[in-house]
Amino acid sequence: METIPPIASSDDPNPERRLSFDQHVQGLPASRQTAHRWVVWLLAVAIVLTVGVFIYAIYASVNWRSVGEAAVVLAWLYFFLAGALAALVMGLDTLIVGATVPPPFERSKYSFTTGREAVRQGRGLIGYAAVVTLLVVVGAAAVRAGRFGLEDWVRLVVGFWVAVGLVAAARAILRGILRLS
After folding, report:
1. What mean pLDDT value characterizes the chain?
2. β-bridge partners, 99
3. Residues 150, 155, 160, 163: what is their CA dihedral angle, to the nearest 10 degrees?
4. What would the pLDDT profile of 14-59 be if each residue is shown by its tens digit?
5. 65 Cβ partners below 8 Å, 6+ apart?
6. 0.85 exceeded by the pTM?
7. 51, 140 in Cβ contact below 8 A?
């Protein structure tokens, strides 16, 4: 992995040296800039795919009697899989650029993270995508085998998000305890 040259970051207190995200990307080697452009296109495709699958999942949920219960569950599983693909691509982009992409609703174009925090966030997105993909593959296999109904799917999703919440709470508590000591 090539190292990023030391350049001013988004949190530099000197306004003349503060970089926007675009300036940060322009300061990267040409190979990383090319990879970033490709990944941005892949991210756009993944987001369009996610929106399309979401619309289909809503349609299948509304017309569940005509499409069948298994089709509703599979539509939502595919929606989560498409979202995981978008998260994976976003995590790859974060690792390639070495900075998080600023959110579109953020007022300041200078609000992006670089360094270790950006790498941690990129790895976190990729890990999240891997966990969701595993959940979807297991759920889809069970639906295809006929051992998984709509109630089971709801239990699985609620259980997954409760587990995510418990892990996040435990992590926050541990961070607080470690900071106190």
Report:
1. 75
2. 114
3. 180
4. 444 456 767 777 777 788 788 888 888 998 899 999 999 999 989 9
5. none
6. no
7. no
Would you say 36 and 93 are in contact if contact means Cβ atoms under 8 Å apart?
yes
Rounded to an integer, what distance in angstroms lies between the CA atom of residue 75 and that of residue 58? 9
Give me the torsion for CA of 96, 35, 47, 69, rounded to 10°.
-80
The two three-digit tokens of residue 139, written as one number: 């759920």
In the numeric block, which tokens belong to residue 161? 């998000």
SS (H, E, C) the chain: CCCCCCCCCCCCCCCCCCCCHHHHHHCCCHHHHHHHHHHHHHHHHHHHHHHHHHHHHHHHHHCHHHHCHHHHHHHHHHHHHHHHHHHHHHHHHHHHHCECCCCCCCCCCCCCCECHHHHHHHHHHHHHHHHHHHHHHHHHHHHHCCCCCHHHHHHHHHHHHHHHHHHHHHHHHHHHHHHHC
